[in-house]
Amino acid sequence: MAHTEHRACIEACDACAAACDHCSTACLAESRVADMKDCIRMDIDCAALCRLASGAMARGSAHVQAICALCARICDACADECGRHEYDHCKRCADACRACAKECRAMA
Amino acid sequence: MAHTEHRACIEACDACAAACDHCSTACLAESRVADMKDCIRMDIDCAALCRLASGAMARGSAHVQAICALCARICDACADECGRHEYDHCKRCADACRACAKECRAMA
Amino acid sequence: MAHTEHRACIEACDACAAACDHCSTACLAESRVADMKDCIRMDIDCAALCRLASGAMARGSAHVQAICALCARICDACADECGRHEYDHCKRCADACRACAKECRAMA
Amino acid sequence: MAHTEHRACIEACDACAAACDHCSTACLAESRVADMKDCIRMDIDCAALCRLASGAMARGSAHVQAICALCARICDACADECGRHEYDHCKRCADACRACAKECRAMA
Lengths: 108, 108, 108, 108
What we know:
The structure is a homotetramer.
Chain A: H1 2-5, H2 7-28, H3 37-58, H4 64-82, H5 88-107
Protein name (chains A, B, C, D): Four-helix bundle copper-binding protein
Pfam families (chains A, B, C, D): Csp
């Protein structure tokens, strides 16, 4: 069953989406928000892909591999960007992105 | 921090979205799919609302209360429909919907 | 047929989602980005609701009225915030939000 | 400006998402719903990707090319499946998928 088989990756995607959404909001609240533009943009993209991938896996979509491959790539980019910043929310987001990229790559 | 404060409800929404997405696919695979039309439709609506609510909470949206109120209502409707069927995926989905509705109501 | 009946509101939601998404990115690129935080947050919420409402109408969801009622409310809030700023992208976004709120209110 | 540059593809994605969502609901209402399972599944995937691609273009995302490439591929698959059925909603959906795939391929 798709739902059970894919559980680890679904949970990694959900955790990553939440970390990205939280990071985007936290970046907007920083005094140096002007330095965080790329991070906010990446967070928005990454959260969208992670939620789409999570749903595709839960439905056992025929396109799970291609979707997870793209999700891994966008998680990598978001981890790279978040990894450049010292804020806790960025560090936690980078960790969530790397964990999600790893699970998605195993699926793809 | 929005992300941490809302964690229980975010996790209930994510679990409910996955249960609904899985239930819709499993309903489509049943031999009595013609009896499962309303269930499939409810599952699709409920998964969409749960993922939107999850993201709104993670971002600490100004509209969290109104969104969670609507999510609770749609979870109730999905739980009622899934509760009419004997399939395991329907029963598990109804449970996830009820748990999510309860968390969303506490937030709203 | 849901799809045809709801066409005007679906198109208003799609146009509003695109205007909000564009406005959020354009706000991030402004030198006064620190003044645009609330606008960016509203844009993200509003785009999410508009896309969800558009899909619910296209599917002829049983929850169209409640979803469109919430969408109208969030469009109003986004129009108010965007209406405070002089940027072209904010003005166009406010117009799209008002048009969408009107269509959604007629549906609700 | 991303929003204007990408307008044709954004509109093709929005039209395709609406056609897919409508087709999935219309398939569920057919007496031969058991024959329409793959079509419904494809419709759900395709609508999700089209809405995500539409938003990514409106935001001028750094990942537009990869997202549109995947969207084109999923539109192709949905067009193939819908093209096998004689229902009007399937034919219109197949047309919308082909038009969207063409625009997305030009973007990718």
